[in-house]
Amino acid sequence: MTLVPLLIASTLTFFSSKDALVREINNNLITITRSKAEQLETYINNTKLNVVMLSHMPTITEMIKLIEEDPTATSNEVRQEILKFNLFLTEYFKDAQYRNVVLLNTRGEILFDYTDRQNSFRQSLQIVAPNSELKDVFEQAKTLQEVNISNFFYDRRLRTPSFLIAAPVLERKRVIGVLVIQIDDTVFSEIVNNYTGLGLTGETLVGIKTEDSIVLVSPTRHNPNAALEYREPLVSESLSPLQQAVRGTISYGRMRDYRDRITLAAWRYLPSLDGGMVVKIDEAEALKAVVTQRNSFIILVTLTVIIVAILSRYIARSIAYPIIQLSKVVQRFAQGYLSEKAPILTQDEIGFLAESFNQMSSQLNQTFQSLETINHALEERVAQRTLELEKAHQEILKLNEQLTAENLRMSSELEITRQLQQMILPKESELTRIDALEIVGFMEPASEIGGDYYDILSYGDRVFIGIGDVTGHGLESGVLMIMVQTAVRTLIASEETNLIKFFEVLNRTIYDNVRRINSEKHLTLALLNYQEGTLTLSGQHEEVILVRSNGSVERIDTMDLGFPIGLDDNIVDFIAQSTIHLESGDIVVLYTDGITEAENPENLQYGIDALCKVVQQNSHRTAQQIREAVIEDLKHHIGVQTIYDDITLVVIKQR
């Protein structure tokens, strides 16, 4: 029976040591995986940055334009420039690991090919081969207008896996060519084949996703030919670490590798490659130390058991009686008789044990008495704290009732303000009475109260149109919008025709009111004065879109025609005006940035180009039909995305 607990202790010790060692190995593998992944990500991101910087160099832009103008390099000037370009590339790539540099125009024709320091200018332009990595990465870079990485491929000339990095060459935000650089796996191999901390069997796998599988992009320790040869399916019944890594998982665990060996591994996702990394080591090598420790411990335990068995039989006779007596006292003590004392029958270890037991029992008895005192004090404190919590609970209930009432009051005030906004907007009946123009408007606030403003007033043969955008939205913005509408109508009703005086008075009124309510709001504002086919435009706001009856589109910038209202106390020096002559069928569109900056679920803005296109396509229709077409196209663009800004639109068409 003595052997059983010792064997249990041996087993527990073994598994405890094994678990500790496995945790240490897993932590080491996780650290190595993170370090290697960071090295690869840093290398790829730095290389992408270098390619982007090179594509932005004026030398590249000038070379594309030069070769496009003289594709066969017939002039001495072009040849001299190409020679300078060769020297520039030779110096730039002196220390780089770039194997090939290709410069293409937007038609996919190779303008310049620079391979392993041997460069050549294409006397007859060659089209990039279809279904090639170069073709794919060229199209991606040109279409997306951003740096792009190709899939890995085997370069028969270099006899090594390689990949391409392409960046668009831009001139005034227009793609005029694509720069493509080929990178071999030299740096990849240096990182992957560094076995520091991986013993004799550890290795690193780096794989990337293809259409239907995962392929390794560098050799492994146990398979030098694994690069672009070893593949795993993208999906299987039981996901391997490499399959989990390319899916974005960062983890570790025990796995069976491609050699059918049990290994300990850590894996993580590589964002720049859309791939994964697995760092592993054979379990047999990793746990060798703990197995050796277990065997040694078993031998030691066996010897100990034998010695203890011999000594126990000898000692049992001399210590049995004192132990029996001590055992009886312990049983009484366990039943709750804490004052029980053990008799000291010998002066040996048993006697010392009995004396120690008596000291322990006395201390425990004192401790129990202290605990009873502390428990009583705690019960009193709990009762007091319960009363305090109940009082606090009642106060919270009272505050909740007050907050509920306050929310109802504020909701009523917001609804009144919203109704006021809708009431002061131009009515359709007012607009139909304007003979010379078709005018329609639309406003949809992002919240209960909007900060957009538009108004249309007709006095005699004049029509005044105003549109503005208060910063933000909500109650403050809505109140400021009502202030502006009232001030503009007052100035127009008072027949103020001096443009500078008009904006000076309006700005001073709004500026003083904004300061009085302790707000930092202001607004952009454009005013249009129409009379007998002539439209006079003033004030700073969004661009004014003008679509002529023949379908041509003009965009009028208002940046230099004014200054934000309420931002400064004096804007007289910034006021200017622009005159537009309208013919029958001409269309003027006014809007706020809630239209052009509206985002779809992919966070892409609607933009002024899309607005111009819809108006141009519907220019033959009525103003109301144009408004409906714009709003429909805008809503289709937004989709399920949340609307973050007020949307306002005014369409004017000369009859």
Mean pLDDT across residues:
83
Q: What percentage of amino acids are in beta strands?
A: 15-25%
Shape: flat
Number of helices: 15
Name the poorly predicted regions: 119-124
- Compute the number of strand runs: 23
Biggest sheet overview? 7 strands, antiparallel
CA distance, first residue to last residue: 111 Å
Q: What is the helix fraction of residues, given as a range?
A: 40-55%
Radius of gyration: 42 Å
Q: Give me the oligomer status.
A: single chain
Q: Structural class per helix/strand content?
A: alpha+beta
Question: Can you describe what's shown?
Answer:
The protein has 655 residues and is α+β, with helices and mostly antiparallel strands. The protein contains 15 helices and 23 strands. α1 packs antiparallel against α5 (186-192), α8 (288-334) crosses α9 (349-424) and α11 (475-493) packs antiparallel against α12 (499-516). The strands form four sheets. Strands 1, 2, 3, 4, 5, 6 and 7 form a seven-stranded antiparallel sheet that branches. It has a six-stranded antiparallel sheet with strand order 10-9-8-13-12-11. The chain has a five-stranded antiparallel sheet with strand order 14-23-22-19-20. β11 (251-256) and β12 (262-270) form a beta hairpin. The model is unreliable at 119-124 (pLDDT under 50). The longest helix has 76 residues, at 349-424. It is flat.
